[in-house]
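Worked example

This section walks through a single chain of length 261. The input is the sequence exactly as stored; nothing has been trimmed or padded.
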Amino acid sequence: MILALDIGNSQIFCGVFDGDQLKVQVRYASKAQISSDEFGVFLRGALRENNIDPESIEIIGISSVVPELNYALRACCQKYFNIEPMLMQPGIKTGLKIDYKDPKEVGSDRIADSIGAVKMFPNEDLILIDFGTATTICAISRDRVFLGGNIMPGIRLSMEALESKTSKLPSVEIRATNEIVGKTTIDSIQNGLYWSNVGMIKEITSRISQEVFDGNTPLRIATGGFSHLFDRENLFDHVVTDLILVGIVEALKINGYLERN
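Given that input, the structure is written out below as C-alpha cells.
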C-alpha cells in the first residue's frame, strides 16, 4: 500500500493507494504546530477506521507547501510507519521540463498536480486550476513542459479577508448563486465571491489559450476543494479532486520507490 500526503496551508489531504487505485481519503486540519506523535496517532487511527492496516503501508510520498511542518511529518513516518518518505523537493525526478526562471520556486503542489494531470491526460495541452487556500492556474504543454501560471487568493481566503479586514461584513457560506445583483449584504458577498471567480477563470484560461497555445483550446482540468462549486458553469473539461495524490504516487514511480518494494 502507498500513502500519499498533501500538506496544504489549510488541510493535510491523505490518500491510500493499492497500486493505482485510491482506496481511502482522509483529511486533517493543518496547524501552525503539530507534533509527530499527534499526527501519527491520528493517521494510524484513521487508517484503522477505514479498514486499512497501518502495517500494510510500504511507501509514503509527501508534497508540502508548509516547510515548518516537514520535520514533524517526516519524523511521524519514521516513528509510526518505519518508513523514510519521499519529500517532493528540488532534485527529484518529475518527468517534466520546468520552464520557470527559477524552477526551485515552483510549489510542490503545482508540480504534483502537473505530474498527475500528465499521467491522466497524456499528449494534451493542459490548463490546471487548483482551488486550494490559494487558487493556482498552471499551463502544461503536450510535450510535458510546465510553462508557468498564476497564483491568486483562494475563495475562502478572500471571504476571510473581507470578514477580518472590514468592520461590518460577516462571514458567509460559500455557494453557487443565481443572481448577479445581491439584495442583502450576505447575498452581495456570496455573489461577489462566486461570480468574480467565474469571471477570473474564464478570462485567465482564455488568455492562456490565446497567448500560450496559439488559440488552440487545451484541456481544462480542475481540482481542489471548491472545484465542484462551478459545475454548472462549463468552465472545465474534467474535475479530478484527488489529482495531487495521483501526482505524488506517479512521482514515487518516476523516482524508483515502487521498484524498491
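What to look for: The domain at 97-246 is CATH 3.30.420.40 (Nucleotidyltransferase; domain 5).
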